[in-house]
Amino acid sequence: MTRQTEPSAGQHMSAEVASQPKIFADLVARRGEIAEIAAQVSARRPRFALLAARGSSDHAALYAKYLIEVLLQLPAGLVSPSTTTLYGAQPDLTDVLLISVSQSGGSPDLLEVTESARARGALTVAVTNTPDSPLNNAAELSVDVGAGPELAVAATKTYSATLLALYLLIDAVRGGSGEHAAALGELAQQTLDESAAAVQEAVQRFRFVDRVLTTGRGYSSATAAEAALKLAETSYLSARSYSGADLLHGPVAAVDAETGVLAVTSAGKGGAAMSEVLDVIHSRGADVFAVGSAASRVSAALRIPVAETAEEVAPVLEVLPIQRLALGLSLARGGDPDSPRGLNKVTKTR
Hints:
Layout: H1 11-18, H2 20-29, H3 31-44, E1 48-53, H4 56-71, E2 76-78, H5 82-85, E3 96-102, H6 108-119, E4 123-128, H7 134-138, E5 141-144, H8 157-173, H9 184-206, E6 211-216, H10 221-235, E7 238-243, H11 244-247, E8 260-264, H12 269-283, E9 287-291, E10 302-304, H13 314-332
Parallel strand pairs: 1-2, 1-3, 3-4, 4-5, 6-7, 6-8, 8-9, 9-10
Organism: Kutzneria kofuensis
EC number: 2.6.1.16
Keywords: Aminotransferase, Repeat, Transferase
């Protein structure tokens, strides 16, 4: 009789992090079908964009908000689902684009928001990892993230693939060719390989820290927010995310030598804007850990390299070593990131 081997802690999350280069390459190869959805969006000429999401998908939506405002020059906002689900708000959404972002496509509040928005005139697009989900059926158009089943509770491959799917969609809406995303599969593998040693060093430096602050500017604000969530849900750290623009306005008072600071600094305007902020943080004695293609250009005790790309796609890569950090810290602190305490894969809210 063959004895069934118990799964080792973190094996699902580890495998899913490692699978991302191929997922990116496959998604880029499907750019044509995403461009067909984008053509329908362009034809409707939306005057405003709204994004609805929860959890990690909310951070992907924040990234999409930057893309829409910068690349499409359209005003964009993040929906508060409870204005619809709890308060029954019914604004006129004629000529508005609503993008609902959900890995599972099963959250009741996002489903209600999408159904309500469509009934009130919005062009609705679902971006999910579950093509036959209720959310996809409710939306007029849908984009399949194509990351495959995710077994670990913490989202890794579905998060990064959602970023890439959103980029390919929005880039195609503006008439782009997806050229900045073309090599992301190869660059993702390069990033995972070249950052491995620095991530292990960061695990050893951060394993006894109880308070972590994450920060970034521009497109990388989404990565900083996702980093705080990953560290909180897998390692049970007290982690808080701030925009680099807000950090010096008050939160810096809580930074001292006992604070771990994870700063996302990729090449471009957002990363350049972090330089002065990190000079101040570093001078306060905080253990600053810089992640990104511009990490070597800022004040930090430890730097984790990321392959350089156009700034608008940097978040797809810069989150990879952060996922590995969350995995390593969870294991070093005696946890199992595949099943964090008190969490389920799908959270249903209204």
